[in-house]
Amino acid sequence: MTKFIVPKEIFHGLGTLENLKEVKGSKAVIVIGGNSVKNNGVLEKAQNFLAEANIKSAVFAGVEADPSIETVLKGAEFFTQEQPDIVIGLGGCSAIDAAKAMWVFYEYPESTLEELAAPFAVKTMRNKAIFVAIPSTSGTGTEITGLSVITDRKKGTKYPIVSHELTPDVAIIDGELCASMPKHVTANTGLDALSHGVEAYVSNIADRYNDALAKGSIDLVFKNLITAVEEPNNLESRQAMHDASCMAGMAFTNVWLGIVHSMSHQIGGTFGVPHGCGNAILMPNVIRFNAKVTDKYEDLAALSGKSTAEEFAQDVSELRATTGVAGSLKEYGIDEKEWNAKLDTLTENALKDPCTLFNPRKPTFDEIKAIYQACYDGTAISF
């Protein structure tokens, strides 16, 4: 028996931020990153909608990229002071991930990050508050997933907290919130959403429910990402990309991901390559690798009138190039000597990454290493 788990309520469409007025509670803490949601007026709108519903609100600001455990614990302390019955993650992936972790420590202050990173270690939530996720970027799908990634900077380690208990109660998917995203962020996050759809579709535990969402999200990305990059004020394309991200998130939170993410996690952590960029560079060669054991890439090629996995790999490469994202890890700027020195460690860690378990083809050390090297050089690989 398999499960399909998503938020209880999903409001989607332009202007749906207003549905904050429907949330039940008396006090909300809104967790944000930097100043973008302040500067573009989104935070003020959210607080005004809450006020209309007689919900008081306080703001915890300053969540950094790759949120740290120190920030999470500060946020949990702020929650304890404010005693919210609603926690709202507003902004990009980092703000929402941090808010999820703060929520756990608010409900279970005796927890440790290491304990929570054990598989499905999170205890029953919603003893003190419900969770509302409002993304302002279109890529990670964290507004839908039971996942939060927190960094211990002292140890230099990222800890994924994975539990369906972290699946938000309410998700608001409003494309108007994305209009101020810079082009490079739109491109990288959009390609991230594409990678989620593609890897969920070919997961070794994929099923009909998630296939439909994954395939639909992929179709939306190919039809709308270029427009969203080139015409940032085109709100219809913004909403389509926001929907694509959410749909891909619904799929992968239920059937997980594959070695694109196993490998991308390592180059992101080691070399600082933006996640969507890393995924886009890796995806075509991973498609070629996996195509030996699955014909599902042919289904995806058919979305653009093609018929083979190789044609789909080329479609992904073309979309990456058209949106201005680097075509190889060397082009991104990784020094060759540093690359060579760290390649074996990258490969070992990618093999150990949990996402590798759900890849349709089981890779060897040498195969992962060969994919990495081809993606560094910018060459197509055959297996």
Automatic annotation (TrEMBL):
Keywords, comma-separated and alphabetical: Oxidoreductase
InterPro entries xref list: ADH_Fe/GldA (IPR001670), ADH_Fe_C (IPR056798), ADH_Fe_CS (IPR018211), Alcohol_dehydrogenase_Fe (IPR039697), NADPH_BDH (IPR034802)
Domain Fe-containing alcohol dehydrogenase-like C-terminal: 186-375
Matches recorded under SUPFAM superfamilies: Dehydroquinate synthase-like
Pfam families linked: ADH_Fe_C (PF25137), Fe-ADH (PF00465)
Domain Alcohol dehydrogenase iron-type/glycerol dehydrogenase GldA: 7-174
Listed Gene3D superfamilies: 3.40.50.1970, Dehydroquinate synthase-like - alpha domain
PANTHER family: ALCOHOL DEHYDROGENASE, HYDROXYACID-OXOACID TRANSHYDROGENASE, MITOCHONDRIAL
Record's protein name: NADPH-dependent butanol dehydrogenase
